[in-house]
């Protein structure tokens, strides 16, 4: 039996005091031998107690190698790249400080690579609330709902197979040498761009539903809006390079927001525009309301009747606004 490959867990991190201990505990109980693992956390100089939590964990758990490196650029892709440079594993597994992998996560990633399933292998999310509030719980349901995420299979019930992208992902070190590191000019969507290069180089991005992790969603509507505004903004930047990667679920939010803004402006002088605006909003929130009502009845959580529609609308509008603003600002910049 050949020796198991050494694995480096790559984690970009900034102000994750609330969740970093959960992630480290989940890594400590992995079924994969701890002697064949290291954890490299690239921290963007957290201002909360994140580093203290990590130091406390290291002191109490000496059987798992945990190192913190400085992410001077303080962005996610720069943090991932810095951690990769500081790591020594044959297989690299990128995780998020908001995540909590199941005990078999590392072992199943390694098994998939040894079986030759894909060049970048990832799994599915089980999304949980980022706080114990009705708002956070509404957001967690919205982040896993088809009306919120379309056909993003890693957030839904999925079958094993080749896909466009996976959350986090795991890959052999030579993949970085082949296609390059994560693009540090993209402050979001860097994983999608990386996976696009994997596929265009003839590689396979493989989704295995047996590889599962808990992901803690944002806890407030404000944080959710900021997250999805960044997603939309940087998605446009990414699509300028790879326009053929645009999917219908990504096109709908900016189209919806553009139509909404156009009708708002036209409604100031045209009665027909006011009718169309009311019709658009009525149909939109009627559909979201039905989804909220159905989920509220199914889960017996009454707040989802209004919480789910508000969370999904926040995602759509923030994503669409970010996308459109990115396009407009690019036009002025190029002009």
Model description:
This protein has 12 helices and 9 strands. It has 2 domains: about 5-125 and about 155-215, Alpha-Beta Complex (Spore Coat Polysaccharide Biosynthesis Protein SpsA, Chain A), CATH 3.90.550.10; about 240-335, no CATH class. With about 325 residues, it is α/β, with parallel strands linked by helices. The strands form 2 sheets. Strands 3-2-1-4-8 form a 5-stranded mixed β-sheet. Strands 5, 6, 7 and 9 form a 4-stranded mixed β-sheet that branches. The radius of gyration is 21 Å and the shape is globular. Helices cover about 50% and strands about 15% of the residues. Helix 1 (about 20-30) runs parallel beside helix 2, helix 9 crosses helix 12 (about 305-335) and helix 10 crosses helix 12.
Question: Any key phrases for this structure?
Answer:
five-stranded mixed beta sheet; alpha/beta; four-stranded mixed beta sheet; 2 domains; 9 strands; 335 residues; 16% strand; Spore Coat Polysaccharide Biosynthesis Protein SpsA, Chain A; globular
Question: Which helices and strands occur, and which strands form pairs?
Answer:
Layout: E1 7-13, H1 20-28, E2 37-43, H2 50-60, E3 65-70, H3 76-86, E4 91-94, E5 99-101, H4 105-114, E6 120-128, H5 134-142, H6 146-149, E7 161-162, E8 170-172, H7 173-179, H8 190-200, E9 205-216, H9 221-241, H10 248-266, H11 271-299, H12 304-334
């Amino acid at each position: 039996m050949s020796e198991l490959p050494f694995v480096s867990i790559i984690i970009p991190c900034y102000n994750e005091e609330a969740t970093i201990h959960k992630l480290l505990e989940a890594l400590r109980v992995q079924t994969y031998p701890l002697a064949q693992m290291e954890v490299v956390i690239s921290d963007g100089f957290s201002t909360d107690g994140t580093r203290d939590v990590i130091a406390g964990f290291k002191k109490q758990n000496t059987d798992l190698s945990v190192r913190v490196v400085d992410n001077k650029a303080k962005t996610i892709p720069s943090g991932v790249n810095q951690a990769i440079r500081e790591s020594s594993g044959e297989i690299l597994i990128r995780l998020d400080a908001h995540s909590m992998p199941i005990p078999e996560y590392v072992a199943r990633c390694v098994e998939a690579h040894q079986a030759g399933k894909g060049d970048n292998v990832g799994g599915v999310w089980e999304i949980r609330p980022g706080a114990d509030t009705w708002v956070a719980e509404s957001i967690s349901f919205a982040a896993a709902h088809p009306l919120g995420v379309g056909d993003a299979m890693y957030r839904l019930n999925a079958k094993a197979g080749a896909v466009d992208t996976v959350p986090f992902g795991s890959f052999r070190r030579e993949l970085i040498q082949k296609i390059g590191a994560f693009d540090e000019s993209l402050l979001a969507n860097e994983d999608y761009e990386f996976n696009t290069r994997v596929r265009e180089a003839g590689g396979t991005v493989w989704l295995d539903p047996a590889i599962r992790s808990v992901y803690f969603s944002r806890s407030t509507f404000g944080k959710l809006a900021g997250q999805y505004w960044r997603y939309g903004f940087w998605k446009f930047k990414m699509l300028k390079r790879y326009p053929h990667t645009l999917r219908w679920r990504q096109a709908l939010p900016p189209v919806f927001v553009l139509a909404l803004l156009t009708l708002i402006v036209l409604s100031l002088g045209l009665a027909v525009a006011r009718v169309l605006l009311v019709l658009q909003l009525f149909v939109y929130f009627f559909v979201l309301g039905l989804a909220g009502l159905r989920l509220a009845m199914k889960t017996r959580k009454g707040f989802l009747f209004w919480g789910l529609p508000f969370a999904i609308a926040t995602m759509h509008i923030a994503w669409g606004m970010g996308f459109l603003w990115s396009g407009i600002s690019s036009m002025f910049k190029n002009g």
